[in-house]
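Q: How would the structure tokens look for this protein?
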Amino acid sequence: MAITKAQTRTMVREYLDDPNGKRWSDTNLNIAIQFVLDDLWSDMLDVAPYINSQYQQIPLPLHTPGFIDLKLTAFGGDLTQRFYRMQQVIADGRHYFPKDPRDYLMVAQSLTNDPSTIQASTGIEQRFSYQFLGDQVWLHPLGAVTTFVELRYNFRPVAFSQLADGTTLPMPEGSEQSLVLLSAAYAMGKGNAEESMQLQALGEQSRQRLMNSIRRQYHGMTVAFSPENPWAYGGT
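A: Here is the predicted structure in token form.
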């Protein structure tokens, strides 16, 4: 059955044998659980890239000279979910593809037509593609979008520390044990005061059951959708 944020924190405290919060405040324990939950979701999204998917339209104007900020809107970015991996980019009804490093070509140029003054400069092939630069995705050719951009991407859920105590834990049904055990093992490492190997072993066993469950549900694609990603291959 699904459990809430408050129940998750209480169970972690029970495994820590710290029910009264003498070693961990609620605020700090929430953050510790958040670290573990984010790692679990990263594992799940690597195994099954389409376990979730967010569609979002990005209106004009884009950020100068032509990029989208992948941070949340609450932090000055453009996205409504916590971005993990791009699934699809469309602008003006045209599909954009990940930029290949081979698109960056060395171009010889001379301003005087004198061979002795030829210099190498970097040129970019102007096909319709996108490029990641930190927390930004740049659309090439820059400034070519005339309507809006459509994104589809997978994401990690709302941070555990930002959930209300009564909110149901954002985990696949029946997999909550892995988060509780791994969070308890993580928290027990504080100050290296206690040995956490037993909890870590139990947590890893539970995590493996979670990954196996996801693999059973997600058979992979029958054709490569994004051939630059090794996980895009496979299927039945």
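The first strand starts at residue 54 and ends at 59.

The chain has a mean pLDDT of 85.

Upvote if useful.
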